[in-house]
Amino acid sequence: MIMWRHEAGNAVADNSMLFIASDHAGFEIKEYLKKELAKREIPCKDFGAFSYKKTDDYPDFIIPLAKEVGKNQKKNRGIILGWSGQGEAIVANRIKGVRAALYYGGSTEIIKLSRTHNNSNILSLGGGFVSKSLALKIVLLWLGTPFSNLARHKRRIQKIDSLS
What we know:
Blueprint: E1 5-7, E2 10-12, E3 18-22, H1 27-39, E4 45-46, H2 59-71, E5 77-82, H3 86-92, E6 100-103, H4 109-116, E7 122-126, H5 132-144, H6 151-161
Parallel strand pairs: 3-4, 3-5, 5-7, 6-7
Antiparallel strand pairs: 1-2
Helix pairs in contact: 2-3
């Protein structure tokens, strides 16, 4: 498993792709995250929205991103945003190979657990509930937290993956 790691304060991984997408409700934070990730030399491919349009629909952006993550779930990761992050996570989790975790505030321990126990490959953020700075903190924590590779967690993930 390719692991994102911190080097000189940056979360990086070799031969992997990071994708990002949002609807109008997460657009401002998505654009902020892209700039901040670029400053840290963490490239990401944007799946949209590419402009603020209040009438857009999050599945139009989340589904293509989730399909890309699902194609290579061991290397690819995605960050998705909406107002609550709930609908976005639900949509992403319908795609084979995706394990989306949701964060909209509270303890950051849940972010670590989503990686160490569940090997989440998509992070869904509730843009209406987290600040830009908190979103960046969470993204960097998520990218820098490795999967534990413990047998019990691998076994559970295999059972989940066998459903799709």
